[in-house]
Each structure stands twice: as C-alpha cells, then as structure tokens.
UniProtKB/TrEMBL annotation:
One of its GO terms (biological process) is G protein-coupled receptor signaling pathway. GO terms for molecular function: G-protein alpha-subunit binding; guanyl-nucleotide exchange factor activity. It comes from the Eukaryota. InterPro entries: ARM-type_fold, Gua_nucleotide_exch_fac_Ric8. Residues 398-417 are annotated as: Disordered. The keyword Heme does not apply. It comes from Talaromyces proteolyticus. This is Guanine nucleotide exchange factor. SUPFAM superfamilies: ARM repeat (SSF48371). The keyword Phosphoprotein does not apply. Belongs to the synembryn family. GO terms for cellular component: cytoplasm. Keywords: Chaperone, Guanine-nucleotide releasing factor. Pfam families: Ric8.
Length: 469
C-alpha cells in the first residue's frame, strides 16, 4: 500500500516506524544511502497531510530531519530531508520555531550559494517560512552566514540565464526558484527595514531581468514580474554616490527603458484585472512608479507624464471616457478599492508636480476634487471660479470640470428649458453648492445667490406657466 493510501492508526504506526528507523541508523549505520532516500521520500509523502503524522511534526522529528538535511552523506539524502522540513514548516507553523531552535538556519543561508535551482528553491522556501512565527535573527544570517551575498549570486545567475533576444526559454524550475528567493527578499526587507540595505546590490539585476522577460498575456502580475516588483518596492532606489557604477533606474544606453517596461506592465494589468483583483497586485507597481518619478531626471519625467497623463487627444470626450491608459487609471481612481484609488490619485498628483492647480488642469476638477479634499488641500482658485461661474479661467479651451475641450462638447439641440425647469435646476445647484461650501471643499460665493443678488435670476410668480399643468 502506498504512503498516500494509509490512514488513521495504520498511518501513524508507519510514520513512527520510519522515523525510528532513521533515528536508530544514526548510530547503527545499517541503512544504505538509497534506503535512507526512500525512507525520507516516504516520510515526505505521509507528511503532506499532518493528520496521524505526529512523529514528523515534533521536536524529535524536525531535529532528526535537520541532521539528515545537513549531515547526510549524499546530496540526494540531504535534498530529500530538506524537502520534508519545508513541507512541515508550510503545513504546521509551530514547526518553524522548532526548526530555528535546531540552530541549522545559518547552514541554510550558507547553502544558498548553489548553482542548482532545485536546491535554491527549497532553501529559500525554508528561510521564507521562518520569517513568520519565529524569533530568528536575520541580521546574523546576513553578517555571519552570507545570506544577502548568496541571494545576490542567485539573482545574478538568473539574470544571465535570460538572454536579451528571448530565444532561449526560461525553465519553470528556474522561475520557481527565483520566485521563492524574491519572496524571501520581500519579507526580510519588509519585516526588518533596517536590513533592507543588504539587498540594494540586487537592484540593477532585478531591472535587467524585468526588462528581458515577456509580459504574460494573462495575469501579468501573478507570476515572476509581480514578485520582482514587490521586492523592488521594499528597496531604497535613490541614487547615492558610490552605490552603483551607473544609475540602474535610468541606464545611460536608454534612460526610459525601465519606465517604459513598468508602464507597459501596468497597461497590461489594467486590461486584465478588475479593481478588486488589481488592489493587491498593482498597488506596489504604482508606488514603484511614484518612487521612480521622484528620483527621475527631466527626460524620464516628461516621458512618464506623456504616457500616464491625459493627452489632448483624450479631451475629445470627457476625461476618463477614452480607451487610453490614463482614462482607465482615472476610472479606477473612483473604485471602492481604497488602496488602489489612493495610489492612482497619488501617482497623478506626483506627475502633476504635487501641485493642486496642475492636477486639476491635468485630470479635471471631477477627478481631482476628492483627492485634494482627502489630503486637506484647497481647491485651486481657478477651479473654484470655473465651477461657480462656468468661466474658462482654468484653460482657454478645456472645461475644468470634465477635462473635455469646449469645441468637442456636444451641442444641446433639444427644446429650451421652461422657466420652471430653470428654477428647479437653480435650486438644485444652490443646494449642491451649499453642501460643498459646508464641507469646506470650495470657498466662493454661491453662484445662484450671486445671480439673485445681481438681479440675474427671478422667482417665478404663482401664475407663471408650468410644464406640469
């Protein structure tokens, strides 16, 4: 009967026998290397379901597996034991501290200096799992066991595996190994910010990888690209003297290459995911673009503005209604997804020089007002006057409310409003304006009250014609 078919007491009895066999052989030395490998593989199979596998999920079991994982006489024995450990740490969080207490975590970090992706994957996964629910000291792993240096060697190795021309395929095991390593980098840098600088040397190589790999048609942020962006989002990207030979964000051969690839990824993502799916996936990318823009020289800044802000062509319809990336982002900025809409609005604000007036001119009052209010920023005086009087002070040819060109606005060819319709519309605008003023969103005289005061608006007499008669 195969390990997966044993259940209940029979499974527990067999797991106990296998663990005891390995334990006894530490002194008896009777099992051949092949026997040890088979025993460990059987334990791993039994351990895929923790029920009735208690001897594995115990101090004795983890310590025993750790000895075979680091002191086993062959690579196959060590690899099989480490797979058992990784499985146990994944399925039972209590075993993570048990493993840390064995004292072998440093050996895991040292073994990350390997040319075999299969081994890299399992070692990175073990360390990644210990970032949760343990008291592990990653500063010791970095300073005494070369964890950051060995991770750098892995990222460099993977960057070399991906050719510029894309003719050579990137194997699944290589991608899985790099993914686990990047998850480790993200967690350590995120949970222990003081250690994030240890991973700074990864930056140019991560950008090299992201430029060389293709953007998946489906779920562009669910695979390797997403993990690279997550890792980059935790690192300090500011160019500092002596840090790199040349700025990795804006390389001399093409200052816009990284910006271009990241915006293409964003464009692909907003075309595939809905707002709920985008929130956990795209927010790190949006924050990464914000950070890059703030460090960018003039050329890449103008390039990002050109790609991400509405262009004149977008203004043939109200802003947000075209099929461009900027319109899609602005529509997403009104979604219920709090972090997503905040990140998009922040990106537009940064692209507008963090200036409320420029933001309003770039994306229209309708999209800008909510963000400015949430930041406690006053609405630009030009926008207030435009809203109050329908003048064109914000721009000579653009409606400041909708962002549409005046010459592209539809002409009303319907019948003129009746006097009562005009009065009802004036009353509605009066109430709306009073609410905006009470909420502190605008500071200007109510245009309806102003019209009445100046004699430009009269109340209907009781005997006036009504379209409701």
């Amino acid at each position: 009967m195969s390990p997966g078919q044993l259940q209940g007491p029979e499974k527990l009895k067999e797991v106990t026998r296998l663990v005891d066999s390995l334990d006894n052989d530490l002194s008896a030395k009777k099992l051949s290397p092949a026997d040890k490998v088979q025993t460990l593989l059987a334990l791993r199979q039994h351990g895929t379901n923790p029920a009735n596998a208690d001897p594995i999920y115990s101090d004795k079991g983890i310590n025993l597996l750790a000895r075979y994982g680091f002191e086993g006489e062959t690579l196959d024995i060590r690899r099989a034991a480490l797979r058992c450990i990784a499985n146990a740490l994944l399925l039972n969080k209590d075993m993570r501290q048990v493993f840390v207490d064995t004292g072998y975590a440093g050996r895991v970090a040292e073994k990350l200096k390997t040319e075999i992706s299969d081994d890299e994957m399992i070692l990175s996964r073990i360390l990644f799992l210990t970032t949760y629910d343990t008291n592990i000291d990653f500063s010791v792993l970095i300073t005494k066991h070369s964890m950051a240096d060995n991770i750098l060697s892995q990222v460099i190795r993977h960057a070399k595996q991906i050719p510029k021309n894309g003719r050579k395929s990137y194997s699944q095991i290589d991608e899985l190994a790099l993914t686990d390593t990047l998850k480790l980098v993200f967690n350590v840098a995120k949970l222990y910010p003081d250690l994030a600088d240890s991973f700074t040397p990864l930056i140019p190589h991560l950008f090299k990888i992201i430029n060389r790999i293709d953007i998946p048609d489906r779920q562009p942020l669910d695979g390797l690209i997403g993990y690279i962006i997550n890792a980059l989002s935790t690192l300090d990207l500011e160019e500092k003297p002596g840090r790199f030979e040349s700025n990795p964000l804006f390389p001399k051969f093409n200052q816009n290459c990284n910006v271009d690839k990241l915006i293409n990824i964003l464009d692909a993502a907003v075309g595939v995911y809905n707002s709920e799916e985008l929130e956990p996936r795209a927010v790190p990318l949006l924050h990464l673009l914000i950070t890059i823009y703030e460090f960018a020289p003039e050329g890449p800044r103008k390039y990002m503005q050109w790609l991400l802000l509405p262009e004149d062509n977008d203004r043939s319809v109200p802003i947000g209604r075209s099929d461009t990336l900027s319109s899609k982002l602005l529509n997403l900025s009104t979604s219920p997804s709090v972090h997503l809409k905040t990140a998009i609005s922040e990106l537009m604000f940064v692209l507008s020089g963090k200036d409320a007036d420029s933001l309003t001119k770039n994306i229209g009052y309708g999209f800008a007002a909510g963000f400015l209010a949430s930041r406690g920023l006053q609405i630009p005086q030009d926008a207030q006057e435009a809203f109050a009087t329908n003048s064109s002070r914000v721009s000579d040819h653009v409606n400041p409310i909708t962002g549409q060109r005046y010459d592209a606005e539809p002409v009303d060819t319907g019948p003129p409003m009746t006097q009562e319709e005009k009065e009802r519309e004036a009353e509605r605008l009066f109430v709306l304006f009073e609410r905006l003023t009470a909420n502190g969103l605008i500071k200007a005289e109510n245009p309806v009250a102003q019209a009445v005061r100046e004699g430009r608006l009269e109340e209907l007499p009781d005997d006036a014609d009504s379209d409701l008669d």
